[in-house]
C-alpha cells in the first residue's frame, strides 16, 4: 500500500486525538504521586518527589482488598448471570419467529431507553419490601434486570448469523434442546460473549449510583463508593482520592486492553442482520 499525504495527515490527526484522550490519565496518574499542597500549586507539572506512600495510605484507609473483593464478586457473578440468561433468551426468541417473540423483543429493546433516574425511587422501595437492600445478592439481582436488555439485544443480532442447519443436524443426531444450545450454538457465540462481558464489566465495575442506593453497609462498599469518601462536600483529599482512582481503574483497564480486540469483531458480527 502506497504511503500518501492523506495517510500521513490521518496518522497525525489520530495521534492528536489519542493525546487528547490520554490527557486525563496524565493528570490522574501524575497528581496521585504528589502531596496535596503540590497538587494545588501546579497540577500540570511533574511531581518534585514521587510519593508512592499515597497508595499505601489509600490501601489501608479503604481496606482495599475488601472493597476490591466486593466489586469483583458483583462484577463476575453479574456477568455470568447476564451471559447465561441473555444468550438463552435471545436464542429462543430468534429460533421462535412468532408474533409474541417479536413483541417480547421490542419490549426488551424499549427498556434500554428508560433512564435509571426514573425507576430508582420505586427500585429502592421495592428492594426494601423484598429485603434485598444491603446485600450483594440483591444488587447482583438488580444488575441482571438492568443489564439484560442490551445484552439480549447484542446476542439477538449475532444469533441471526448462526446457520440453523447446524442445529437441525444436531437434533437429527439426537441432541436435546439443552445440548444443541450449550454444545453447538453457545461456542459459536464467543465473539459476542466476550464483547458483552467487556461492556458489562466496564459498566458494573465503575457504577456508583446503584451501589450508593442499595449498599449502605460499609463492609459492602464497592471501589467507586469507597473512593467517593475522599471527595466530601467541604473537603477534597485530592492526593488520596486520585491514588484511589488509579487503584480502582487499573484492574479494569488491564482487563479491557487484554480483550479489546474482540469488541469491534463482536459488535460488527452482531449487526450483519
Give the topology:
Blueprint: H1 5-31, H2 36-41, H3 53-61, H4 64-95, H5 99-111, H6 120-130, H7 136-159, H8 164-172, H9 177-188, H10 190-206, H11 209-214, H12 223-227, H13 238-259, H14 261-270
Helix pairs in contact: 3-13, 4-5, 4-7, 4-10, 5-7, 7-10, 7-14, 8-9, 10-13, 10-14
Structure notes:
The structure is a single chain. This protein is an all-alpha fold and 273 residues long. It has a single domain, classed as Orthogonal Bundle (MetI-like fold), CATH 1.10.3720. It contains 14 helices and no strands. Helix 4 runs parallel beside helix 7, helix 7 crosses helix 14 and helix 10 packs antiparallel against helix 13. The longest helix has 32 residues. The protein is globular and about 70 Å long. The two termini are 32 Å apart.
Q: Can I get a quick summary?
A:
This protein has helices at 5-31, 36-41, 53-61, 64-95, 99-111, 120-130, 136-159, 164-172, 177-188, 190-206, 209-214, 223-227, 238-259, 261-270.
Q: Would you list the SSEs in sequence order as H and E?
A: HHHHHHHHHHHHHH
| CATH topology group | MetI-like fold
> Radius of gyration in whole Å, from Cα?
23 Å
State the fourth-level CATH superfamily: MetI-like
CATH class: Mainly Alpha
Helix/strand/pairing category:
mainly alpha
Which residues sit in consecutive blocks of at least 5 with pLDDT less than 50?
none
Shape: globular
Strand coverage percent? under 5%
- Give the averaged pLDDT, no decimals: 88
Through-space gap between termini: 32 Å
For the largest beta-sheet, the strand count, sense and barrel status come to: none
The CATH architecture would be Orthogonal Bundle
**Annotation, overall tally of beta strands:** 0
Number of domains: 1
Number of helices: 14
Proportion in helices: over 70%
Amino acid at each position: 500500500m502506497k504511503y500518501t499525504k492523506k495517510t500521513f495527515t490521518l496518522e497525525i490527526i489520530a495521534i492528536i486525538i489519542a493525546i487528547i484522550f490520554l490527557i486525563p490519565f496524565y493528570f490522574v496518574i501524575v497528581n496521585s504521586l504528589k502531596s496535596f499542597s503540590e497538587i494545588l500549586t501546579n497540577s500540570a507539572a511533574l511531581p518534585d518527589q514521587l510519593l508512592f506512600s499515597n497508595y499505601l495510605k489509600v490501601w489501608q484507609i479503604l481496606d482495599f482488598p475488601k472493597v476490591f473483593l466486593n466489586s469483583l464478586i458483583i462484577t463476575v457473578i453479574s456477568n455470568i448471570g447476564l451471559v447465561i440468561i441473555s444468550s438463552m433468551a435471545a436464542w429462543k426468541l430468534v429460533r421462535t419467529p412468532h408474533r409474541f417473540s417479536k413483541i417480547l423483543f421490542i419490549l426488551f429493546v424499549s427498556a434500554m431507553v428508560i433512564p435509571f433516574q426514573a425507576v430508582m425511587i420505586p427500585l429502592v422501595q421495592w428492594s426494601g419490601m423484598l429485603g434485598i437492600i444491603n446485600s450483594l445478592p440483591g444488587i447482583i439481582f438488580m444488575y441482571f434486570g438492568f443489564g439484560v436488555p442490551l445484552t439480549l439485544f447484542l446476542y439477538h443480532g449475532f444469533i441471526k448469523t448462526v446457520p440453523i442447519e447446524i442445529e437441525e443436524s444436531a437434533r437429527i443426531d439426537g441432541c436435546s434442546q439443552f445440548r444443541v444450545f450449550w454444545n453447538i450454538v453457545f461456542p459459536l457465540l464467543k465473539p459476542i460473549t466476550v464483547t458483552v462481558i467487556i461492556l458489562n464489566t466496564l459498566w458494573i465495575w465503575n457504577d456508583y449510583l446503584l451501589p450508593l442506593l442499595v449498599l449502605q453497609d460499609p463492609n459492602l462498599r464497592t471501589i467507586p463508593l469507597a473512593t467517593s469518601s475522599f471527595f466530601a462536600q467541604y473537603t477534597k483529599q485530592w492526593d488520596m482520592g486520585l491514588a484511589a482512582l488509579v487503584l480502582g481503574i487499573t484492574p479494569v483497564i488491564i482487563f479491557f486492553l487484554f480483550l479489546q480486540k474482540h469488541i469491534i469483531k463482536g459488535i460488527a458480527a452482531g449487526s450483519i442482520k
